[in-house]
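Technical annex, item 7. During the second reporting period the consortium partners agreed on a shared format for inverse folding records so that results from different sites could be compared directly. Each record opens with the tokenized structure and is followed by the designed sequence. A conforming record, contributed by the partner at site C, is shown below for reference.
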């Protein structure tokens, strides 16, 4: 399925103040892959994600989603293919009710009332939140907000799901629910997170970024258990593995 493929070639991005956030990023993600994006603050993770769905346009280099090259002319088409879940759920929830938030995208696609209702029901049931459809978003817990934010994206039926720090500010129970939810998605997924345990649970592949460059790309189990590699890039072993090591006898 070529429309599920993400391909970057020598992608660079500089902000107006001259800050170079991406410096020649190249990788390819194929249909159905779950890819984690790891790196410290300022490594370029969020900037990369924003380039993937056209919120930002590369300064140099090429991005293609399927057979569609990203440009100012195609960015709206790209956004329909790449669903973006922001780090702060409140950035995506702005309507009076959960139902209206999830319906907002399908309505703007020009779908009729019956189709909009079908999309909303399917998306909310997918994340286990249909019972919240009449609730004001500001009355939801952080975990519920995160699930509804995902539903607003899924209602658009994107080919690719992109998430920025999806587990931030979640309690342990909500985090586990999120992980189980992500495991159930058959979509191509790209997840940027400081939570390396989440990447291990959800993503078979991991890309490590440092100073706007890809420094490692391979199986998550291989990269995220490589203590020397992680330390070189100012990262630490996933907490679950740190605990295992602490329990081992000398």
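Designed sequence (site C submission):
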């Amino acid at each position: 399925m070529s429309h599920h493929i993400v391909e970057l070639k020598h992608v660079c991005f500089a902000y107006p103040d001259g800050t170079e956030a991406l410096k020649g990023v190249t990788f390819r993600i194929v249909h159905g892959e779950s890819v984690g994006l790891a790196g410290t603050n300022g490594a370029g993770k969020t900037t990369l994600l924003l380039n993937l769905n056209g919120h930002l346009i590369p300064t140099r280099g090429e991005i293609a989603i399927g057979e569609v090259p990203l440009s100012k002319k195609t960015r709206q088409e790209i956004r329909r293919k790449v669903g973006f879940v922001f780090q702060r759920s409140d950035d995506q929830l702005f309507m009076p009710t959960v139902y209206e938030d999830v319906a907002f995208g399908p309505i703007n696609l020009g779908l009729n009332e019956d189709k909009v209702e079908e999309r909303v029901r399917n998306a909310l049931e997918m994340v286990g939140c249909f019972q919240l459809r009449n609730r004001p978003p500001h009355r939801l817990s952080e975990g519920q907000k995160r699930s509804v934010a995902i539903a607003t994206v899924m209602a658009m039926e994107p080919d690719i799901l992109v998430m920025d720090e999806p587990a931030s500010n979640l309690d342990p129970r909500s985090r586990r629910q999120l992980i189980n939810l992500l495991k159930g998605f058959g979509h191509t997924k790209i997840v940027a997170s400081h939570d390396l345990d989440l990447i291990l649970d959800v993503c078979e592949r991991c890309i490590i970024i440092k100073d706007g460059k890809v420094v490692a790309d391979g199986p998550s189990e291989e990269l995220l258990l490589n203590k020397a590699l992680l330390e070189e890039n100012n990262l630490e072993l996933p907490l679950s593995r740190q605990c295992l090591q602490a329990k081992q006898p000398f």
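The first strand starts at residue 6 and ends at 14. The radius of gyration is 18 Å. All partners now use this format for quarterly exchanges.
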